[in-house]
Write a sequence for this structure.
């Protein structure tokens, strides 16, 4: 399916690290991917089903073998059910992450979340007001408790609609009402999705997919949005600050602690412990020049956004980061943590610590963190990391210099830079200086040359005056490529360059972690409201050039259901049903005003996205071009 130049290869700047890992006998994700070839064609097309034990079943795509499973489910039903279960898993993951933050918020309110506090009272009050909570004359902790309670109700079945859908433009909410897509409860939609996909329940592939959209919306405008908003309340609203990225952020002469996963609840406490004078003194006694905390994946993004903490790499880099031999401890929470990394670490001196009761891994020590003990446990594990510094085997291999970058572009910051209103951005779009904007999000996948999709697509878009905002593993790729510095404006087209120079911003804005994709929803809602249009009318699009995870399916689905046409690099497992393919790539246009498109080659994807934006400009009565 893939062009050989974009498959089965590793990143260029990762090559020395990759060579080191191979020299050390480390098996990486790329070897394991090759060992799996050829991957199952039935599964690749979504045509296999193991939902019940009359199966497993598969449908023959060539029409020669069975055309239904044992129960009679045909290709359309099986493909739709499989996709919907991916959406449910992704929504459950993000929304459970959000739930953990609500529990910390509730713990802060009642005094049981020791060491945590409300860092942004203004945001607490703003969000509380959205939930209809009066704030005048109330203690901050009382407001926090009431907000936590109200958010818990969003997870349940007492509401007709989750609260934060009110942030969407009126026209978008009307679309959701018309097609019965308004999410009622966060857990409810995931639970109903799992119910409908049980054998013998919903066997209409169209209604299954519509529920898939409602389920995804319950994540985008519910669980993920709550995760981001509560993180901002507890740890601060991100603002631009300088940082550095790539494996060069590890320091040979310091204690290196890497945090990995998604939830800032643990990593924020680890960050505080790393600043403890007692532990810094201990590090000095052990011969280290300091304690160097860095991140990978989205836990790293959370710290980078709020604290400017350096980022060592993205999802597929984790094994290579360990193979530097420089990591004294890796602390993980959950999601996107390959179960292989404990084994990789065992080849070095690295201590591996898992922290969540719901995420345990082979060859890691499990030290359970919860809001009541996180402060204490963080100090204990950092002490262990410092003590491990003297156990290093040989000289660490750190073959690259760190790349400078700027992160921390929350919606508050972006609007602040524009003078508190989206008008200047809208004026620049109307004048054609900025043609539009694309949110590039998601993961790495060994099916695509590491970071090639992200970097190539981003380069092509900015040089054609399209502003890029990014999150997740993409943001690490584009930062490593140097796109996240104000000077990178020189790589942009003349119009975008002018705006970036005037505002002192890079042409690629880092908006955070995977749950922070909701910041993009809030931003496009602000633009749509200012123009008096729906999100689907805006010259904007989404893209996930190297996605791999179920969460990415959910994100793509809530983007599309919110009116943002979205490109995917790797093909999702749906080609076994042309009905499903046609609905997702064409039919949804008549329902939600946006569709999916699949194109593994980022050069071609750039042309598609540019044309999508130009078409939206034309429909808005703005000047437009033919780029195809
Ligand atoms: Fe087979 Fe139907 Fe059971 Fe799926 S639900 S495994 S298609 S019998
Ligand atoms: S970490 S979901 S690989 S973006 Fe959020 Fe990266 Fe994708 Fe995980």
């Amino acid at each position: 399916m893939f062009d050989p130049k974009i498959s089965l290869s590793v990143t260029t700047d990762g090559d020395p690290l990759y060579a080191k890992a191979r020299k050390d006998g480390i098996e990486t994700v790329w070897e394991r991917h090759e060992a799996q070839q050829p991957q199952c064609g039935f599964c690749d097309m979504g045509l296999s089903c193991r939902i019940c034990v009359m199966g497993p079943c598969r449908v023959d795509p060539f029409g020669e073998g069975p055309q239904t499973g044992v129960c009679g489910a045909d290709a359309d039903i099986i493909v739709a059910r499989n996709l919907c279960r991916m959406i449910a898993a992704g929504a459950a993951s993000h929304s459970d992450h959000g739930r953990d933050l609500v529990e910390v918020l509730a713990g802060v309110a009642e005094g049981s979340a020791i060491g945590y506090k409300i860092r942004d009272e203004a945001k607490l009050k703003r969000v509380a007001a959205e939930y209809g909570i009066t704030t005048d004359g109330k203690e901050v902790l009382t407001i926090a408790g009431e907000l936590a309670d109200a958010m818990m109700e969003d997870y349940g079945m007492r509401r007709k609609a989750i609260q934060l859908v009110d942030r969407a433009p009126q026209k978008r909410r009307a679309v959701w009402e018309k097609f019965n897509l308004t999410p009622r409860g966060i857990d409810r939609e995931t639970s109903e999705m799992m119910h409908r996909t049980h054998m013998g329940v919903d066997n209409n592939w169209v209604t299954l997919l519509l529920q898939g959209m409602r389920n995804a919306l319950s994540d985008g405008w519910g669980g993920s949005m709550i995760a981001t908003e509560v993180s901002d309340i507890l740890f601060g609203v991100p603002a631009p600050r300088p940082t550095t990225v790539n494996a060069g952020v590890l320091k040979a002469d310091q204690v290196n602690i890497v945090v990995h996963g998604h939830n800032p609840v643990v990593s924020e406490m680890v960050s505080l412990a790393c600043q403890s004078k007692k532990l810094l003194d201990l590090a000095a006694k052990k011969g280290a020049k300091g304690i160097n905390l860095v991140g990978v994946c989205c836990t790293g993004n959370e710290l980078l956004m709020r604290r400017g903490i350096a980022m060592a790499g993205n999802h597929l880099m984790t094994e290579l980061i360990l193979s530097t031999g420089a990591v004294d401890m890796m602390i993980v929470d959950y999601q996107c943590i390959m179960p292989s990394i404990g084994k990789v670490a065992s080849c070095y001196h690295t201590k591996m610590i898992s922290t969540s009761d719901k995420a345990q891994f082979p060859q890691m020590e499990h030290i359970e963190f919860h809001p009541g003990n996180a402060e204490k446990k963080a100090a204990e594990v950092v002490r262990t990391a410092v003590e491990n510094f003297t156990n290093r085997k040989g000289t660490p291999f750190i073959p690259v210099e760190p790349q400078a970058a700027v992160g921390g572009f929350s919606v508050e910051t972006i609007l602040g830079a524009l003078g508190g209103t989206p008008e200047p951005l809208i004026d620049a779009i109307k004048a054609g200086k900025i043609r539009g904007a694309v949110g590039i999000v998601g993961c790495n996948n060994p099916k695509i040359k590491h970071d090639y999709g992200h970097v190539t697509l981003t380069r092509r878009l900015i040089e054609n005056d399209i502003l890029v905002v990014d999150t997740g593993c993409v943001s690490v790729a584009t930062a490593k490529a140097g796109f996240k510095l104000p000077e990178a404006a020189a790589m942009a087209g003349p119009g975008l360059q002018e705006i970036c120079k005037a505002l002192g911003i890079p042409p690629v804005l880092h908006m955070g972690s995977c749950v922070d994709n909701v910041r993009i929803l809030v931003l496009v809602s602000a633009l749509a409201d200012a123009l008096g249009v729906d999100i689907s009318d805006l010259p904007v699009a989404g893209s996930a050039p190297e996605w791999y995870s179920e969460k990415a399916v959910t994100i793509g689905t809530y983007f599309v259901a919110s009116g943002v046409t979205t490109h995917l690099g790797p093909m999702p497992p749906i080609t076994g049903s042309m009905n499903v393919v046609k609905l997702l790539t064409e039919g949804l246009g008549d329902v939600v005003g946006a569709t999916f498109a699949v194109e593994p080659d980022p050069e071609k994807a750039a042309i598609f996205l540019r044309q999508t934006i130009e078409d939206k400009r034309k429909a808005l009565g703005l000047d437009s071009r033919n780029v195809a």
User: Anything to note?
Assistant: The mean pLDDT is 96. The domain at 247-391 is CATH 3.40.50.2030 (Rossmann fold). The longest strand covers residues 255-261.
